Amino acid sequence: MRFSCEKHCIGYADSRIDGIKFSEECGVFGGASKEHNIAPFIQQGLFMLQHRGQESAGICCGDDDLFTYKNRGLVMEVLSDKIIKTIIGKIGIGHVRYSTHGESDALHAQPYVITYLGEKVAVAHNGNVNAAIKMKKDLEEQGEVFLTTSDTEMILKKVVRELCKPPSEWLFEEIGEVLTNNFLGGAWSILFCTSEKVFAYRDPFGYRPLVICEAEEGVFVSSEDTAFQVLTVKKIIHIKPGEGVIITKYGYEIRRFAPEMPSRMCVFEHIYFARPDSNIFNKNVYMTRVELGKKCAIENPVDADIVVPVMDSGFAPALGFSQQSGIPFQMGLMRNRWVGRTFILPEQQLRKNGVIRKLTAMREVIEGKKVVIIDDSIVRGTTSVEIVRMIREAGAKEVHFRSASPKLINTCQWGVDIPSKNELIANSHKNTDGVKEFIEADSLKYLSLEGLKDVFGREGWCYSCLIPSNTNTSENSHRKLISIK
Ligand code: SF4
Description:
Elements: E1 27-32, H1 39-48, E2 56-62, E3 66-72, H2 75-78, H3 81-85, E4 91-97, E5 112-116, E6 119-128, H4 132-141, H5 151-163, H6 172-183, E7 187-193, E8 198-202, E9 211-215, E10 218-222, E11 233-238, E12 243-248, E13 251-256, E14 265-266, H7 268-273, E15 279-280, E16 283-284, H8 285-299, E17 306-309, H9 315-325, E18 333-335, H10 348-358, E19 359-361, H11 363-366, E20 370-375, H12 382-393, E21 398-403, H13 425-428, H14 432-439, E22 443-446, H15 449-456, E23 461-462, H16 473-484
Parallel strand pairs: 14-23, 17-20, 20-21, 21-22
Antiparallel strand pairs: 1-4, 1-10, 2-3, 2-4, 5-6, 6-7, 7-8, 8-12, 9-10, 9-11, 12-13, 15-16, 18-19
The structure holds iron/sulfur cluster.
C-alpha cells in the first residue's frame, strides 16, 4: 500500500480534526501537448494534488478558445471523466482550492478567467499576496470592479491594467515585472493561460514549490512532482525562486524574471502539507519526516513500550522515532477514511466528536503498555487532548506525547491558515508543562528549533511561525527588503 494514497480518499478532506484550517493550500497544475488533449492529464494531476485543497476544483483548456469548468467539490466530483471528455484542447491549467483569502463558494473556484480585448486569459494561484487588501482598495478607487474576494482576481486585473494589450501579446518578462513590482513579499506560485501559452512563476523568495516535467505526453507544471506520476517522465526540473517557465505545444523555456533573493522555503510544506512521495524544494518529504522523527527521539528520549503515530503526517516521524529509539512501532490508532469534512464543524464538542469519529484506539495494541504518541505538530491542542484520552481509555499504562516539530507560536503571512496567536496552545499556556497538563499526557516534548534546523539547514528556509516575533531577525531583514522595494 502506498502510504500517501490515504490522502486521496474522501475521508481525508478535513485538514486537522481540531477544527483548524491549518493545512492544505491550493494546488496548481498546467501544461501543453502537441498531440494529446490536455484535460485528462490536468484532471489526473489535480487528483494527485487533492490534499492541497478540497473546497473546489477547476480547469481551463483550449486551443483557439479557452473553455472553463469549475465548481465546489473534490476533483473527481467536479471534473468527472464524463466532463473531461467534453473539454477539447491541447493547452490548459487547473486548480484545487483551499481558501485563505476569499469565500468558500463556487464563485471563488479557480482558474479565474476573464475576456479582455476579445481574448480569454486564465489564472490559477497558490499562495498569498499580503498587499492584497490595500491594492484592491486602490484599484477600486480607480474604478475597478471585483466579482470575488480572492487575491487571484486582483492579481489578474492588476496585470491586465498594467499591460493594456491583448493576452496573446503578453510577454513572460512583462508579467513577471508586474508581479515583482506589486506583489514582492507575497507567496505566489502562479499560472497564466492564454490560448497559446502557459506562463508559470515562482515568487522571488520561493515560499511555495513549483516544478516542471518534460514528458512523452507534453510539458507540465505543478505544485508537487508527485502529480507527474501518470506521465511518461523524461525530466523533472524544480523551478528556482524568481524563475518561471513558458510552455507551448511545441516546447518550453525556463527564464528568470526577478533577481535572486534570500530564499524563504516554507518548512511546513515538508512537515505537513505535501504528499510524502513528493520531492519539495529538491528534498523528499517522506525521508525528511523520518529524519524529523529520528531527531526528536535523540532530543527527547522516553521509557515506552510502543511508538504510535497520529495519522497521516505523524506516520513517517513516528517511524523515524521508532528506528532511532528501538521502541517498536505500532498502529495503535486507526483512521476512519470515510469520515466527512470535520474541519467545518464549528463547535468544540462537534470537533471532539469529529476526533472520535475519525480515529479509534486499538485496545489489543495499547492495553497495559507505556505509549509514546508522535504527531507532526501541536496547534490548538484540542486533537492532542482527545487522542491522549482515547489511548488512556484503551488501557495504556502511561501516555507520552512527542511533537516532531517545534512549538507553533506565530501566524503565517504567506498563505498558511494558522489560527490566531491566542488560539495556539504554545501561546495560551505558559510553558511546555502547562500544555502537558492541558493534554493530560504523562510527558510532552517538542523537537527543538535547532533540531529542526539540523534537518533542514540554517539558511534558505522560512521558520517564522516557529520563532518569537521579537527575535525573528531574518524575518525582519526580509521585511526590510520588501520595504526597500
Ligand atoms: S510562517 Fe510558517 S507556515 Fe508560513 S511560510 Fe513560513 S514556515 Fe510556512
